[in-house]
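Exercise 7 asks you to align residues with tokens for two separate proteins.
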Amino acid sequence: FTLIGIALYLLWKKLCFLPSYEELVNPVTPPCLEPSLQDQNLTQSSPAIQPKTGAYVIGSINPELYKDPEDNSETNFPEGNIGRLWFSVEYEQETERLLVFLIKARNLQAPADSCSPFVKIYLLPDERRFLQSKTKCKTSNPHFDENFVFQASSKTLHQRTLKFLVFHTDKQKRHHLLGQVILPLRNETLTSDSKLVIWRDLEAENLEPPSEYGDIQFSLSYNDYLGRLSVVVLRARGLKLQDESFTTSVYVKVALMNHNKFIKCKKTAAVLGSPNPVYNESFSFKTDQKELDTASLSLSVVQKAEDDKSHQLGRVVVGPYMYARGRELEHWNEMTSKPKELVKRWHTLAVAPN
């Protein structure tokens, strides 16, 4: 009976003397859980309530991690840059219209403190006609937002080239050429379904008068690891065409020689008869490094008429001392001294011997 009495006493004491807890007025929320989902809803409806900066609910998305990458095309300019141009191109097959939308330019380097630029647009080989934008006053970063239309046959479209000349107008209303952009349409896919947006850096135009038979510009590069000689035929200027009609075309033939023995020949695509054709085509030749002392490259500019008759307009040979002198020898030596680097130069065309 004594044990039973003790047990009943302990049970009665436990039930009558339960501990009481004071409700917290300001409960502490773990940092990883603030603000709560309910707090976020309140924040959206009540601007006065703002969540703690830098804290996110478990399972929510941090928007800082999903921002679009920055477009560096307007800020990342290489050393010596003289400007950059943005434009778009599309082609309407049914109406045979080439639509050019001039968007903007950035980082223009005007000769004076203030820059008032405008742009002339050509569709080569027609260099007598052009379309011109409005002049934007006192800005080196103009917005043009102008549309231009050229009529161009679908059969000859890929033999045409767009040329943009960017000018600056000074206080005396004189025009100064700031640079040019040349876009051959040969490698572009142009449709009316999608607008091709392009940006290009301006190039300084060669203001030297062309030589008697014209000039050609190309780049040379040699990869000593792969044993590969590369040639990029860029453009020609001042060519003396026998027939300047659109029925003629001009191409460049590149031949690799070794000890005056023909090794291999490659040709560019033909460009409609223009004294200033643009190519931008690259060719590679397998050449061992030991052969560079005996190898040479011959570049011939050839005019082809509608009846398939061909006429060589001029030629230039680059190579080591036994084959070349002057600029041609310097170009070859610079290429061999700078492996894997493109070396670009202009060369004077000479009439090939009969």
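Second protein for Exercise 7:
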Amino acid sequence: MSPLFRRNTPAAPRDRLVTLVRKPGCHLCDDAQVVVEKVCGELGVPWEQKDITQDPELHDRYWEQIPVVLIDGSQHTFWRVNEDRLRKALGD
């Protein structure tokens, strides 16, 4: 299968990865996590969280935007996570 064909084929939910970039004590991060947990749980999409205070590269890149949601490594949104928009981005 050519890479071009794979790029145009939607990934199955289990093949996607949502990353929540956050920091401890951040109320917007807590709110974002609730949405990410709900949407990913309902769609069967794996997700992870990364602590911006433990990763200098993430800190430098996203400090002024947290929380940040990445889908498959690309930035999807920051500050507030919209449940419908996240669902749509994940193919629901």
